[in-house]
Design brief:
Blueprint: H1 3-27, E1 39-45, E2 60-66, E3 119-123, H2 126-130, E4 141-149, E5 160-174, E6 194-198, H3 200-212, E7 214-220, E8 233-234, H4 235-242, H5 260-267, E9 272-274, E10 278-284, E11 287-293, E12 296-298
Length: 300
Amino acid sequence: MSGRTIMVVFLALFSGAGMAVGVLQSNRPKTAGVGTTEVEPVLIAIADLERGRTVTKADVEVRQWPKGLAPADTLRTVEQATGRAAVARILVGEFVRKVKLAEEGAGFGLAPSIPVGKRALTVMASRASTSVAGFVLPGSRVDVLLNLKASGRGDETGGGSTTTLLQAVEVLAVDQKQDAPEANQFDPKGLTSVTLLVTPEEANVLDLAQNMGILSLALRNSSDMSDADVLPATLAEIRRLSMPPNSPPSPYLDGDLPPPTEMLTAFSPPRVEQKEPVWIVTLRGNQRGRVVLTEQEDRR
């Protein structure tokens, strides 16, 4: 083999090796400047933490993680999380972040989940908790409806009314559960109460309402936070809407009953009055008798 042939083969091999190295370099994953050898401590959950549960040392552990890949608010030591309550559910293997834990000294149970300036009020009526077939779960958004019966004579509702008291209210808990249960562990028939997140003024309204009438919940999309312009529904309006078209209006739809004398006139049967009787004397042989003739007329 001549020297020229050897040189050509050598150049071909060198060019192929250079191209292979270039392809490998272009396909290598980029780490955006994060060093693969640098690590830092992060706090990881080794047990499921339900909302409201207090974190213990047995629930978390410190692990080494590539530096810069964990969320910025991830806790770094066990002491930073111990004794604090979870305000959101934390799953096994998840970073223990500051945003998911209550502040130190915020309390236990449901209290840490209540934002400053808000209140948690429990609606005990069983109808409220089951009014949408048990689909009201922690984290849902609901409208609160109040049903009132007629207050007595002269009530303009015609016998009862339903009013939308509050809209887009967050459900904090159902019974004693602060997280949505698993599908196979959910029994809507056993629900007895719903705890709502409200302002102090709304808490006053709800407390009065549940002592004066019947509360129900209307489930809405959690992303729908707009207030609807809803008028109260009354029995008088329902009767009016259910009347046939072109029917004459009734004076008794609004629940304002007329005086008893007018009601007697309106609903009594026609009055029939008799005139003075007419007597006719009859003779049959030596027997004498008489017949009474009467005439009736309708004075209506």
